[in-house]
Specification:
By secondary structure, the chain is of the alpha+beta class. It has five helices and 17 strands.
């Protein structure tokens, strides 16, 4: 199914949103809870599946629901459709501080691999599926488990990640990355896991035991602040301030030290 040709605009700096303009009859699919606002004439409905296969049967839909359970995503995707006669807008935002990456799937051979909670929204016709890592070590120690998410289509897709985002283009090169900082990469690149160093470095270095290794030619997107790192910092700070004043005072101390 050919993807709908949607127009978009990204606003904001560190707390971004994407505003998508839909022509009459156009649809955008999104993760549940990501909608910020929608104009009149846009109706939405939670559906099993992404709608990329109009001939998809019930058994196939149930199978796809099972795959979404493996990635711990919502069972449903929300479909937003412009039912009016003029252009209308709908906006989406991530659920933690970060940036939105627009990806024209037609420029990357219609295929992108990303961490399982990165998908935000995409043009109707985009298929959201799972990607099993090809190597046992990468699956066990990679931070994202055996399962990554893959996005397939020829239209616009939008992924969300934490902190600042950088895009690096590898040309038959190898890049080692903190496993939590890896957001997405083109399928032309290979993905593996390697030890961070010797035993002392692995235990006391503070950089984790394993690093992700990305090799080959293609683009990779990295995030400066994985949500797991942010939550770990907040929990550690909370633990060090037990019994110090009110809850509001404790929260104030957290954000002063972040």
């Amino acid at each position: 199914m050919k993807c709908h040709e949607i127009d978009y605009k990204i606003e904001g700096d560190d707390l971004q949103l994407v505003i998508i303009e839909l022509d009459p009859g156009e649809t955008v699919i999104a993760e549940g809870g990501s909608m910020m606002y929608l104009e009149e004439d846009i109706v939405y409905e939670a559906k099993l599946g992404d709608g990329s296969d109009i001939n998809e049967g019930l058994a196939s839909k149930i199978f796809n629901v099972g795959k979404r359970l493996l990635t711990r995503e919502s069972l449903f995707l929300t479909h937003f459709t412009n039912k009016g006669s003029t252009k209308r807008k709908v906006a989406f935002a991530g659920n933690y501080p970060g940036k939105i990456i627009p990806v024209n799937m037609a420029t990357i051979n219609n295929y992108l691999i990303c961490q399982k909670d990165a998908f935000l929204c995409a043009a109707m016709g985009t298929k959201i599926d799972i990607e099993f890592t090809k190597k046992f070590g990468a699956g066990i120690f990679g931070g994202e488990g055996f399962i990554l998410q893959k996005i397939i289509g020829d239209g616009m897709a939008f992924i969300h990640a934490g902190g600042h985002i950088i895009e690096k283009e590898l040309k038959n090169e190898t890049l080692r990355v903190d496993t939590g900082c890896l957001v997405a990469f083109e399928p032309s690149l290979s993905y593996d896991i390697q030890a961070a160093g010797n035993l002392k470095t692995m235990v006391f270095g503070g950089e984790g035991i394993f690093l992700a290794q990305i090799s080959g030619t293609g683009r990779v997107w990295l995030q400066s602040l994985p949500i797991s790192r942010l939550m770990a910092k907040m929990m550690a700070t909370l633990g060090s301030h037990k019994g110090e004043g009110s809850v509001i005072g404790g929260l104030s101390n957290i954000f002063e030290k972040l």
